[in-house]
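Entry type: protein chain
Record version: 2
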Amino acid sequence: MPVTIKKIAVSDLIVNPENFRYDPVSSQREAIDVMVKEQKENIFELARDIAENGINPNDKIAVAYTGPEKDSPTVLEGNRRSLALKLLDNPNLIENNVKLKGKFEQLHNTFKTKIPQEIEVNVFDDLTEANKWIKLKHTGENKGAGTVGWNAHQTARYKEKIENKSSISLQIFHLLQESPDVPDQLKIRLKDDPKITNFDRMMADPQARAFFGIEVNKNGAVQSSVSKKEVIKGLAQLATDLLDPRFTVGKIYSKENRAKYLNEFDPNKKPNISSKETNPWHLVTTIQTSGPELRPKPQPSERKVVIPKNCSINIGNPKVSNIFTELKKLEVAKYPNAASVLLRVFVELSCDCYIDARKPNINTQRKGNPTLKEKVIGISEDMMKSGFATKDICKGIQTGVGDRHNILSIDTFHNYVHNRFFSPNPENLITAWDNIQEFMTRLWNNLP
């Protein structure tokens, strides 16, 4: 048999020193170092996806007992996945990137009971046979014999049907295709070749959405209070223009180009946005989906933990990373005192990590170590100066440390710790985090 399926321990897999993605090296150790250096965050995201969702059953890793280490299975296809699995199981394999190693340690600690120890692989006896299939996978469509990727419209259809995430453009297409006021020829063009990337570029511009009388709510659904007939009139003309073979993306590529296009829009087709419907309406209601109904994001009062579980921050320091994980699990109503102290510690240690790494200018009013307020002010100024954050992003935490009633102020924190008659309010803790989440994300994302 040219290929067999076999279970192999992850630790036994040999990352290929002759991986076609890179210049050949002499050992697995060098191959790992090269891939870690080149892949960085990509290999971490792959490992996190594997930890959360498992290994893709549609795409098995291929190995052969050949190459520099013939007594072990050398990976022919799937070196990135193999490395992600090995690092997930043993972060110590990362030797030259402390931050990435810390992130893998956190991932390992979070998912250590779920990390695969062995996997099913395709074992090839014949390298010629293996290379034939590897070439077919990685060299494009090959006139239909290879993998034919989805275009933007096909991807949008998948997200709408399976993930219940309908793009703005796709919602507009549905509206126009179902309207009796849109010519059949235009409907056919929208179905066959909608130029969805041009629509996406146009609809990503708030000025364009306002021009056509539409807006997007927090669930991603397109809605309007303008007369439906007027909205359809304008969008139909937009579709006609974008689908014209003579139309080039350069006409709407930049904000200035889009403004010029709108300024020159056919006056007879321009929607009258002063013409209103009695009740606002949603384009999404015209879409038939088999997925679950769109649900609004939970409000702070509905959340049980300080930090929402979908909040993702790449934290290089293992201790701070563990605190971050605990704050995503600790039910604030049950453990408000623990949550308040942990939140304060998380913020202060994060600031200390930033100061150690970037050495921002911290002005202090007294001898000794700076206060948290002084740290935050100095870090905020450094982040704004470096382009890491805007004034609005920094405002939440600056206000917090300056408000003596906020958990981040030293007075309130001391009361939580030392005053037996003073207890933290769970909702205040959740709100405090919501006000600083973007700041903390930017802080960690911009550490070297």
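Comment: Residues 65 and 91 are 25 Å apart (CA to CA).
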